[in-house]
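INFO  loader      accepted 1 record
INFO  loader      residues=447
INFO  predictor   begin
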Amino acid sequence: MTAADILAAYYRCPAGPGGLVSPADLDGQCGYFRFGADTVCYGRLSGGVPGERPNEASVDALEAVRADGQAARLPFDAGEVIDNLRMERYAGSWSAGRPARHEAFRRAYYYLRPALPVAIRRFLHKQYFRGWEELGFPAWPVDTTVERLHRRLLALTLQASGAAETPFIWFWPEGFQSCCVMTHDVETQAGLDACEWLMDLDEGFGMRSALVLIPERRYPLRPDMVRELLERGCEISIHDLNHDGNLFACREEFLRRVKRINYYGRLYGAKGFRSGAMYRNAEWYGNLEFAYDMSIPNVAHLEPQRGGCCTVMPYFIGDVLELPTTMTQDYTLFHVLGDYSIGLWKRQLGLMIEESGLANFNVHPDYLTSERATGTYKSLLIYLAELRAARKMWFALPGEVDTWWRQRSQMRLVVKEGGWRVEGAGSERARIAIAAVEGDTVRYSVA
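INFO  predictor   done
INFO  writer      dumping tokens
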């Protein structure tokens, strides 16, 4: 995919006279470099030596961009860099990228986990995550590297052609500034028993949610039970196979398990998937028979598998739409950070709205067992209701986001009757926005 194709896919903007040109002779090893003072990239670089670590990204590729009146010439492959971030290639796969002692710890932990008291598990998690504050990349608590890259690349395209602005199809339906999705991973029988109560609570605040259910071993799951949950108006997704931490341990094991995972998806009519403990390898997603996945965190400093996709927008991995989990999980907030306020969530929501991104929550019924935790979640729902009233966010089920994003990916802007119009399925909900050059980036406005 060329750089121009990347911008057209992201913005759904019309083709313009300008463009972006990547080097044809890139070679050497991938590494870290900057694209402006605030943006760290990972990929191959022409005319410079990238660093081996994010803090060694000393070369600023933006200084090497050259415009010739028709196009801006980049010293790197924009598509490669964006894919490296979204696919977490900068971090390596989990099995190859983690030290052997971490792999041994993981196997021992999941073997002993059923017998470990909750207090011991919390202690082990805190020990495992020690030093996370020192990780500078991806940026905590929300990383928007991919969004900044697209803005900067679009600005270069417009400047190369002498244009000041361009229309594009806005990211969300009906002009909503951003989007919010509420999901609930159900990990134990106690969590399953609490689903009715949790759905009542959500509905009391006008929130519809998705239940992410484990199909084997953890608790008995029956088709009639799933039908009852669906009749309540929620959505069902599949959560791993048995949540033992081994789904992505090796390719052979993954292929064996994914057949059963896909079977349960068909059995329960589930369009979505999320892996256990957010273990993942996006390179293998071609074997998933689901419309969307929610296994990749935006920034994963406090997940067992570190990394992060560095974006707050949905994106396609082949035919699978990735809805990144962008909000800190409740277990992490309560039991790793020891925070029972909604301050961090509010900060993240502010960044999502500012960047027009997807706020994808994962709150477990299993961890809302104390009055303190329940009170925190109620405070979150109250705050979300305020955002909904102000039309700051589109509150949707993950399947609705999947439907919209697929429709938007097929829409196009055309000139009719002297103005721009959106054509394609779902276009009646689409809005036209303007991206205008502002320094080395662009700012958005929605008509």
